[in-house]
Write a structure and sequence with these properties.
Layout (H helix, E strand, L loop, with lengths): L13 E5 L2 H4 L12 H6 L17 H14 L4 E5 L2 H4 L9 H16 L3 E7 L5 H4 L9 H16 L5 E6 L1 H9 L13 H23 L4 E6 L5 E2 L4 H24 L4 H6 L7 H7 L5 E6 L4 E4 L7 E4 L16 H14 L4 E6 L15 H16 L7 E7 L18 E4 L4 E4 L1 H12 L3
Parallel strand pairs: 1-2, 1-11, 2-3, 3-4, 4-5, 5-7, 6-8, 7-10, 10-11
Antiparallel strand pairs: 8-9, 12-13
Helix pairs in contact: 3-5, 7-9, 8-9, 9-12, 13-14, 14-15
Length: about 450
């Protein structure tokens, strides 16, 4: 076996783990929390595997102190979590729910007291149902609704929280939630995804603008789940297909954020809403980092039977995770390098990366060698990008613990900590222990 040289990460590199509110909090009907689109969707028969819901999930709302102690014991110095918008504003705007404010204040205070730095995502898909009933992100008022909510959270937590993510994977909420209908709110449409995406971008810009106006001195960015396809061949057709795929996959949201407008290809092919000059300036408000959620990548070849004339070709069909996603670490290196070339962000934070594999507790322990090797391989692949000039600033493992995996329910287990949903007992897996060693060494 060939021994590879170690990769050392820069000083101040952000090592962390990530979660999302609806996936772990539970307590959906407690302390004044309003209903989200995921509450509605998960209670709609046939939408979620086995009829699972996030009603209880990991019961983090009641167990956050235990969870924070666990994070500290694992040696994880940064924790990315999301705020449940309807827990703060039950109707999406208007009356503030003080008990929701109190919960996130307690969570942040507990993190800080345990020397864990909070990284807060404002929107991770649990959109207020009350706002969805008023047209959701496609409503002209949507950006103001989000801006008001964002400003409230900046003022509430900004003295202790210095890194913010505006939106998590807006592509998924637009396309899967409002195009294919596989995710909440479950709309099926060819045109609505682009209207919803437009609203999200304006909301992102509004949040960034308000954050700058408050002058709190922290950092703010957006997280997308983009990846850059690898051309199947160097033929003009395959190169064109890859370019079109990349525009739709990455450019849909990142081109407006970095350049102020959608890619020309998307405008020529889809009914993309138009930005006014003022809106172009708003959506491209300066961000401090690019957030990247990364799980897999593909090769792309020309095929007019597929969207964007781009057929996605698996690179390794014989090495997949519980989700059926392929393990190809070099696709992460490729996406980081291409993201740097196309957008040149001040910093790139890998805000999610991980894998699902079935595991179980044996004699009080959870051995998960496949996940352990996955994390090691992908962290190494991330580090490989440093020699190409990529300004990689952090890596957050997905997920801190097993949780509600959206339409898949509780079947996939992404956590580096095992959760017994009947007893709510947490058991760190061998991957968590390995990850702690990498963090302490700052090298892999």
């Amino acid at each position: 076996m060939i021994s590879m040289p170690e990769i050392e990460f820069p000083g101040g590199f952000l090592w962390g783990a990530a979660t999302a509110s609806y996936q772990i909090e539970g307590a959906v009907n407690e302390d004044g929390r309003g209903r989200s689109v995921w509450d509605t969707f998960s209670h709609t028969p046939g939408k979620i595997a086995k009829g699972d819901t996030g009603d209880v999930a990991c019961d983090h709302y009641h167990r956050f102190e235990e969870d924070v102690r666990m994070i500290r014991q694992l040696g994880i110095p940064n924790y990315r979590f999301s705020v449940a918008w309807p827990r703060i504003l039950p109707n999406g705007d208007g009356t503030v729910n003080q008990k929701g404010i109190d919960f996130y204040n307690r969570l942040v205070d507990t993190l800080v007291a345990n020397d864990i730095t909070p990284v807060v995502t404002l929107f991770h898909w649990d959109y207020p149902q009350a706002l969805e009933d008023r047209g959701g992100w496609s409503n002209p008022e949507a950006s103001r609704w989000f801006g008001d909510y964002a400003e409230l959270m900046f003022k509430t937590l900004g003295d202790r929280v210095k890194r913010w993510v505006t939106l998590n994977e807006p592509w998924c909420f637009a396309h899967l939630g409002n195009g294919t209908g596989d995710h909440a709110p479950g709309n099926v449409s060819e045109t609505l995804p682009y209207q919803v995406g437009h609203g999200q971008l304006l909301g992102h810009g509004e949040a960034v603008r308000r954050y700058r106006e408050l002058g709190e001195g922290g950092k703010i960015g957006i997280t997308t789940n983009h990846y850059f396809g690898i051309p199947y061949s160097e033929s003009p057709e395959d190169l064109k297909a890859t370019s079109q795929f990349n525009d739709w996959n990455a450019g849909w949201f990142l081109d407006p954020v970095y350049f102020g407008d959608y890619p020309d290809y998307l405008k020529s092919r889809y009914k993309m809403p138009e930005f006014t000059a003022e809106q172009k300036a708003l959506v491209s408000e300066k961000t401090d980092f690019m957030g990247l959620n990364f799980y897999q990548g593909d090769m792309v070849r020309w095929n007019t039977k597929f969207r964007n004339d781009a057929e996605q070709i698996e690179i390794r069909k014989d090495n997949t995770t519980q989700m059926g996603w392929q393990r190809v670490p070099e696709t992460l290196t490729h996406t980081l390098i291409e993201s740097h070339k196309r957008y040149n962000p001040d910093s790139i934070l890998i805000t999610e990366n991980g894998c699902a594999y079935q595991d179980s507790v044996v004699d009080g322990k959870v051995d998960d060698p496949l996940r352990t090797q996955f994390l090691r391989d992908y962290i190494r692949a991330a580090g490989e990008s440093l020699s190409h000039g990529v300004k990689l600033g952090g890596y957050f493992a997905w997920s801190l613990m097993d949780n509600f995996e959206w339409a898949e329910g509780y079947r996939p287990t992404f956590g580096i900590v095992h959760v017994d949903y009947k007893t709510q007992k947490r058991v760190p897996k061998s991957s968590a222990l390995m990850y702690g060693e990498i963090i302490r060494a700052n090298r892999v």
